[in-house]
Amino acid sequence: MTSAKNISQRNVLLSIQNLTISLDDRPGTSPVVNGLTFDVHEGECVGIVGESGSGKSLSSLALLNMLPKGVHISEGQILAQGKNLTQANEKDLRALRGALVSMVFQDPGAALNPSRTVGKLLSDVLEAHSDLSREAIRERSIEVLKEVGFPDPESRLKSFPFQLSGGLRQRVAIAMALINRPRILVADEPTTSLDVSVQKGILQLIRQRTVEDGIGCVFVSHDLGVIAEVADRVVIMYSGQVVEEGPVASVLTNPKHPYTKGLIASAPNMTSTLANPLRPIPGSLPSVGRTPIGCAFQDRCPEKSTGTCTPLKPTWSVDPSDSSHRWLCHSEAK
Amino acid sequence: MKPLLEAVGITKEFRGRGRSLDVTALDGVDFSIMPGEVVGIVGESGSGKSTLSRILVGIEKATSGVVNHNDKAVETPADWRALRFDVQYIFQDPYLSLAPHMSVGQSIGDGLEIRGEGTPKERANRVAKTLEMVGLKASDAQSYPAVFSGGQRQRISLARALVLNPKVIICDEIVSGLDVSVQAQILNLLVELHRDQGVGIVFVSHDLRVVKYLCQRILVMHRGLIVETNTTENLFSNPQHEYTKHLLSCVPAGLSPSGI
């Protein structure tokens, strides 16, 4: 991973400012994503980590303005190379999606049209954004398949998705996302449905394309181990709220927010043993629209009674040695 | 000591329908678990780990091979019934494995009723006790599965198995669909059950990190074969088979936290 200082001096490709997503039909309930703010630089991968209901998937869909019915962006803006995606109309969005901003989904079996061959799937995306000859399309398709480590691309252009393994399907999905050379890649749990040995290859691929092509990558996952391998920075979300963010190494080795600490202490890793048991977070996530006012984590927080906790008005604390590591809690700051 | 449950030379073939090919899911597999042991079965999708666990309780019939219970071959329906007094199975998806039209109390008490154990009042007491054992409230017996979260439903599934006082529970990917913070609650509950009541566990999972945490002995499966079996410590410190080495190298290492 490149050093954080180096990255923060590069161009900002994607800037998310105070993104707030609310339920349509229930005004007055808490937003499902509340004030999400972060930047993605050239060649940087930002991980979003959270459990179900944290708003991480909705946030990633909002980046392409693809929110499902029932929720809408109620505040904030998403600037992709200066263009505000929240204000863009359907026509502009069509021109942007797959060209400037691309997305890779969790389940490649569901994301690929089963009736189109690999070659067709790729040329569809390419033709939607450019006016290339058949020969040029074929060349670019083979080139991008090589880039994503797809073996024997020339002969596999005629394969259908069902003839490919899960890992190869996800490589095709990534090739589709990269074929127009996007500046921003959004990946929502792209390895969750894959076996570990396949997962490793996909993570390396995303990492490599991010660094070599200078793409800005947003990588959504529930798995801290995966995020540690792929991301430069990490944003931890809980019940729609960002609770902590910073460089991956500092957040994961020196977590500050009680939720981040709880998440790490409850996730088994290769060093967990019964002598050093997992420490689960007591209680369960608040249901949709029922996030407590102020600190979202207050009802489950083991540190609520200590320090100088102000659950109704949590404030940001900053690591004095690295101002890019911050957390929404000051019970420790004293 | 004799194994409580044993499988010898198990093969399983699935006949392909139409144009799909026949599949050999298990190709001569031996398995055994001692009373009170915690055994992990790991492998990737298609390795045969679920099929093996299902054959152990007779949900799936082996094409060839024998299942032994208390050192005796399980053959007749009565043998299988006797086996299920000792062995209970817990499924992966707690949204599919609980009957939605039965209250939690009915679901958990069902097994007792089928066996004709106790009076209705005694059964209700056992249900209440078991609910408390898995960290739920006795009053939850009146509620229906729909009002519970995934983690709570998996506790109910556990209660459903445990109310029958099994000697072994077989858990097929029971924490895979759960959030990390809830997954840890269920894993620790299994640890307690084993420590306090000596329940044996067969834990089927694709997640090496979880299996390493929970199990004393591990079987690694690949393409219908057990490629390596060893104690957890030895398997992780000194893997022998190439496939095991490969699998271990693919686990996201993460970063070990300090100061918490």
From TrEMBL, chain A:
A GO BP annotation: peptide transport
Protein name listed in UniProt: Unannotated protein
Localization, UniProt: Cell membrane
InterPro entries the UniProt entry points to: AAA+_ATPase, ABC_Ni/Peptide_Import, ABC_transporter-like_ATP-bd, Oligopep_ABC_C, P-loop_NTPase
Principal cellular location given in the protein's record: membrane
Keywords (A to Z) from UniProt: ATP-binding, Cell inner membrane, Cell membrane, Membrane, Nucleotide-binding, Translocase, Transport
Source organism of this protein record: freshwater metagenome
A GO CC term attached to the entry: plasma membrane
PANTHER family linked to this entry: ATPASE AAA-TYPE CORE DOMAIN-CONTAINING PROTEIN (PTHR43297:SF14), OLIGOPEPTIDE TRANSPORT ATP-BINDING PROTEIN APPD (PTHR43297)
Keyword presence, Cell inner membrane: yes
One Pfam family per UniProt: oligo_HPY
UniProt membrane topology term: Peripheral membrane protein
Gene3D superfamilies reported for this sequence: P-loop containing nucleotide triphosphate hydrolases
Domain ABC transporter: 14-264
Keyword Zinc: no
MF (Gene Ontology): ATP binding; ATP hydrolysis activity
UniProtKB/TrEMBL annotation, chain B:
Gene Ontology annotations of biological process type: transmembrane transport
Gene Ontology terms, MF aspect: ATP binding; ATP hydrolysis activity
Species per Swiss-Prot/TrEMBL record: freshwater metagenome
Pfam families recorded: ABC_tran
Family named by the database record: Belongs to the ABC transporter superfamily.
Keywords associated with the record: ATP-binding, Nucleotide-binding, Transport
Residue ranges annotated for the ABC transporter domain, each copy included: 5-248
Protein known as: Unannotated protein
